[in-house]
Design a protein that fits this description.
The protein contains eleven helices and seven strands. It is of the alpha/beta class. Helix 1 packs across helix 4 and helix 3 packs across helix 9.
């Protein structure tokens, strides 16, 4: 499904289906010898989607998801630790942008008084709420859904939901930026900056110039074609590649943007992060590891 201005989606469509892919990957992590986290809700979401007629990705896509399983697990663990550290430093208010099927409000040990705002497409949040209600799941902190497209006036919707811009906030930007145009990325951070008081933090999975390099993207497509051939699947030209859902445009480096706006920034490349968690060795050749950087910003003034 090609992207268009103002497009929307249900959980099994377009960008929504990528949330199911992430949930499936998180469910697989629990079967590893030494899981980096546990997410019992992930399988609930996948099972519910299957009951609605969703099908697991074709074999070549499953192979791709498994190939980046170490990356996906490391990413999840990094954001888990980001929120835990924010709470340990007294931040009680968190916002998860494009929250999808994120279950952190249910599975993390939040400090007393914490509130988590989840922003995403209305149909995605409705599916999530329905599944959790059916299983009698209760969050470990107050969770407030904010059903709105991030291309719309979500700051107003967030305030209307109870968000207090005078309180420090922990913001999560995970698996989101390629699905926004470059101008939309800049606007996203402008809004985060305007809504953040001193002491706020932001955690970002950043996709910089190296990620959108044409040769690199071409190599990703070639690798996906290899998975397809190994799975014995014919290429009819209609197979979905997640790259088709991205806005492949030159964009501002997140570290530069935050630094220029007075945030104190630290960053770690994906391969180094995976090494930290024992999921690959630094310098190890791994074409499946995305060229991303995990950025944490602390607003100093």
């Amino acid at each position: 499904m090609a992207r268009t201005d103002g497009d929307s989606w249900d959980i099994t469509e377009s960008v929504g289906a990528t949330a199911l892919g992430v949930a499936w990957s998180r469910a697989q992590e629990q079967d590893t010898d030494c899981p980096l986290f546990t997410d019992p809700y992930a399988k609930m979401f996948v099972d519910a989607a299957l009951e609605r007629g969703w099908r697991l990705p074709p074999a070549h896509m499953v192979a791709r998801i498994k190939a980046i399983g170490g990356y996906a697990a490391s990413r999840t663990k990094w954001f888990d630790e980001f929120f835990l550290a924010a709470g340990a430093n007294g931040i009680e208010q968190s916002v998860i942008l494009a929250s999808g099927l994120d279950a952190r409000a249910w599975r993390l040990p939040w400090i007393d008084g914490s509130v988590i705002y989840e922003i995403d497409q209305p149909k995605v949040l409705a599916f999530k709420a329905e599944v959790l209600l059916a299983h009698g799941a209760t969050p470990s902190a107050r969770c407030v859904p904010v059903p709105i497209d991030l291309r719309d006036d979500w700051p107003t919707a967030l305030r209307d939901a109870g968000f207090d811009a005078s309180e420090p906030t922990a913001w999560a930007v995970e698996g989101l930026l390629p699905y926004l145009p470059a101008s939309g990325q800049d606007l996203l951070f402008e809004r985060i900056h305007d809504l953040s008081t001193r002491g706020s933090r932001v955690g970002v999975e950043s996709f910089g110039a190296g990620f959108f390099d044409p040769e690199y993207l071409a190599s990703r497509r070639q690798k996906l074609q290899q998975y397809r051939q190994e799975a014995g699947e014919e290429d009819d030209g209609n197979a979905l590649d997640v790259q088709d859902l991205w806005f492949i445009e030159a964009r501002t480096e997140v570290t530069d943007w935050l630094t220029d706006h007075g945030w104190e920034v630290t960053a770690i490349a994906a391969a180094e992060l995976m090494d930290r968690y024992g999921r690959c060795a630094v310098g190890e050749a791994d074409d499946a590891t995305p060229r991303t950087v995990f950025v944490e910003g602390n607003k100093m003034c």
